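Quick entry between incubations.
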Amino acid sequence: MSLLVLGSVALDSVKTPLEERHDQLGGSASYAAVAASFFSPVNLVGIVGEDFPEENIAFFQSRNIDLAGLQVVPGKTFRWSGEYLWDMNQRETRSVELNVFENFTPELPDAYRSARMVLLGNIAPALQHHVLDQLVRPHFVIADTMDLWINIARPELERLLARVDMLILNDGEARELTGETSLIKAGKKIRGMGPSTVAIKKGEHGCLLFGDGQFFSCPAYPLEDIYDPTGAGDCFAGGLAGHLASRHLSDAELSEKKEIPFEYLKQAVVEGSVIASFNVESFSMERLRTVTRGEIAERYAIFRSLGRFEDL
Amino acid sequence: MSLLVLGSVALDSVKTPLEERHDQLGGSASYAAVAASFFSPVNLVGIVGEDFPEENIAFFQSRNIDLAGLQVVPGKTFRWSGEYLWDMNQRETRSVELNVFENFTPELPDAYRSARMVLLGNIAPALQHHVLDQLVRPHFVIADTMDLWINIARPELERLLARVDMLILNDGEARELTGETSLIKAGKKIRGMGPSTVAIKKGEHGCLLFGDGQFFSCPAYPLEDIYDPTGAGDCFAGGLAGHLASRHLSDAELSEKKEIPFEYLKQAVVEGSVIASFNVESFSMERLRTVTRGEIAERYAIFRSLGRFEDL
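Done. Structure below.
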């Protein structure tokens, strides 16, 4: 099954304590689509300017990412610039140039409207709504978000929650959205706002997954060094959604009931964590250009061993 | 096998947003000994004054805790008073009265000197050394510590690390001790300072365990509410050490080699987490007075399910 991915496509300038690079391929849709492409075909919905490098287009195509939904319009591509402080735990946005993104209205090609598995990547909730409005009968809709939208577009975000099956956000955002200090309470409260499934990302502490009376604690991969955290969250969402899309192509029972087995969701969270853990090992999207299916399977097995212990 | 437990025995006055109580049984040795007593007999080493309530003595005895090493001397028992702020994440010490603790020199009864499994609970490193000096040939020594000793007794603490098999500390303390931001780096660095095994407690995020080329990520129990966090760390250490003591009584191979299988250490970390998760459900040590072996086994099984997922 193809995965529909909406989000930003950007040219990033990133500075870490170790390195600085300009106009790297970035944006939530780029990271998510490439991450998902390890598991399923992807239909990408986004916008770029005429300055968007041809090599990025070729890279997307080499990853089996369909670009019929990528608008190429006059003007400059969205640009983001940020800097990570010495311990990589804090990020400062240095500049944002919206450029062609400012007037972006996502229009789905006809072939995309029947999408069953959908990732509304991190982008303004109004645009996430706009894509949802064009879908005929999506089976499972995953939304990613960030603190910015909680702060400046909360009503649209709350309306969105009632329309999606799964929300992905980080620990600080979950606390901000719910006013709860306890992440356990926050996760349950967000389920009450709409999505039947909630994933709370905790960075170096892994991820919590909340379902209907079900709960999963995914460990973090024990990385000693993070080279560049940019796009880790998008890779997590993309890997997760791509895994689910790959699982559901042949499941006849899906036309009958809405529920995805919690076991599939847990495995998807792990696959997302695996891809994110690779992505932070190198600058920009570099590691995703070389990682193999074999390496992904190997790391999945390591994730299984991280938290495993025997019965007494 | 009996577990030797050194630490403080105190009368605590604790205020939480919900409740305030005075002169509750507290101290690192009290919590650790009671936690360990679910798994093995305990020999407790500590000191109290003549005002120490007889009911606490009776409670220890009812838990199969030997008190030959508990000095009862003229004067008042050590008292600690603290307050938790609304979200239970921050604690303020309101007062400390050392009383009889001020001149405490732990003297082991002869029968204790042959102890094989030892928990040096959270107490001044000089006292931890003093107990070690009296042991004939301990098989596995676990030390618990806290930020206070890193700050005011670092040389003694560093000397202690070279003498123990396992160190338990929390995430902030691990960072402070090593100067590393990454907990993975910190855990490995502490192993290089002496202990072959290191457990880093992360509160609501669980616990990391570092061994020789081995690693374990223990999830946290998904508690919605914490009633009183006092003693959680001591219960973790005590449950862990008690479990190890219970495992090793009959293991003939232990006289031959020093190493405890990493699988035993993982299971011990889980048992410690189980006891700590019960302890924070009620005020003071209340929950440990009622919890049953069956409830402990049940929660161990829940811990197993928290992070479990299938192969693909």
